[in-house]
Every structure is written in C-alpha cells, then in structure tokens.
Amino acid sequence: MKIIVTKNYDEMSKVAADLMAEVIKNDPACVLGLATGDTPIGMYNELVAKYEAGEIDFAAVRSVNLDEYYPITPDNDQSYRYFMDKHLFDRVNIDKANTSVPDGTAKDVSKFCREYEAKIDELGGTDVQVLGIGRNGHIGFNEPDAELERFTHLVELTTDTIEANSRFFASEADVPKHALTMGIHSVFKARKILLLASGKGKAAAIRALVKSNITTACPATLLCLHPDVTVICDEDAYSLV
Ligand code: GLP
Questions:
Q1: Element spanning 161, H or E
Q2: Which domains does the chain have, with CATH numbers?
C-alpha cells in the first residue's frame, strides 16, 4: 500500500485528479470506479478543470459507482446518481449511457445485485476504483461486521453511518436505512484502488487502515490484501498514525 500525505484537502484533490487523469490518458475507453461523499468532490472539480483545459476526454470513458441509498429515486438530491450528475457527469462529455450507479428504485433487489455484478465483470473490472472511508472504516457501504459480503448486495446502514450522513438530509429520520453497495470482492476487481481521506474526523479510520490487524471490524483494513492501493490523505487525516 502506497501512502501519500498531502498538506490539505486541495492538494489531496489535485494529486488524486492527476492519478485519475493518467488512467484516462493511458486508455480513453477506461473503466472508472467512482465514489460519492464530500471527500471526492474536489477531485471531481479538478477533473472537470482538466477536461475544460482539453487535457482529458470522457467521450469513451465508462464508469461504475460503488453504492447508492435504498430506496431512493434518482431525482432525489441526496441520491448518489444525482450527486454524480451534478459533480461530474453533467460537466464533462461522458455518455450517460456509459455510466452506472446502483438503482435505488430496483424492485427485485437480488436480481438487480446479480446484474450489477455481472456488469462489472462485462466491463472487465475497473481500471481504477476511487474510495472514501467512513469514520468507522467502512468502504462503499461495507459496514463493520463479523463477516463481509463478497459481491454487490443490500446492506442495513449502521447508526454511526446514518448519523454521519444525516448532515445532508433534513433530519436523521430522512436518511434511508438501507443501501446497495459493491462488496469487497467487487471492489477488489479493480486493477488499482485510490482511497481518499481528509480531516481529523477520518484520523482514527486512517490509523486503523495503516496500523491495525486485518479485521472485518474495520473493512478498510482488507485493502492491504490488494496489490495496487494508493491512499491519498491530508495531514489531518494522517495525524493519528
Ligand atoms: C458514505 C459513502 C462512502 C463514503 C463515506 C465517506 O457513507 N457510502 O462511499 O466514502 O461515507 O463520506 P465522506 O467523504 O462524505 O466523508
């Protein structure tokens, strides 16, 4: 695992965008595994700037997102589909037909999860998977548990995650109690993983990621089993290591 510690959030975003831009330049039809949350917003802004400067082109890029609340409709401004359109897809020349976000309106959830996993396989896995990290060490919505699921699945959110994400909703009661998320093996289908973290609120999770034993009690620790992981975090997120 490679660890890059940056001065602050802006530098973290720039370093991450540079790495993503390299992947796109190397293969204009690459498959990006994308994430939501506050953390990658700066990176998406930097990617849009690179696109506007003519440095990168999204015309042939394909993407798959990590997770989505369930149930939620795509027009809900808290849905991850809405987030992706707003922060990236509507600002670059990506073909929306080439973008996939788990469907928060799926009726038959098991069937949807099987199909989403098959889609990741059809794409040949992602060239790079962006990840944030939850305060409790979750990745995607793979929450700490005695066992972790391999593939895309429906998950019940922990109270910690509901509370952490309630800042985006009118009230905690409005946060969906479930989510669809790639599993650990789905994430591991990526050839390269970029995990981003910023701020003191993530310091304990980054400490666990870097120092603790591998444990499903902190799903991010599993990442040290993947051959190509780069952690980009700012000094605050790295402050407890
Ligand atoms: C959310 C998302 C994760 C994200 C994490 C951190 O619950 N499901 O994919 O990485 O929590 O979010 P943030 O970047 O806003 O701190």
A1: helix 159-165
A2: 2-234 (3.40.50.1360)
Ligand 1 centroid to 188 CA: how many Å?
Answer: 18
Active-site residue 77, yes or no? no
**pLDDT, tens digit, 9 for 90 and up, residues 180-227:** 999 999 999 999 999 999 999 999 999 999 999 999 999 999 999 999
Could you list the beta-strand ranges (E) of the chain. 2-6, 31-34, 62-65, 67-70, 99-100, 128-131, 153-156, 178-181, 193-197, 229-234
Give the number of the atom of ligand 1 that is nearest the alpha carbon of residue 202. 16
Contact 170, 207 (CB under 8 A): no
Residue nearest to atom 4 of ligand 1 (CA): 132
- In single-letter form, the type of residue at position 197 comes to A
For ligand 1, pick from 72, 133, 154 the residue to mutate: most ligand atoms within 8 Å of CB.
Answer: 133
Q: pTM of this prediction?
A: 0.96
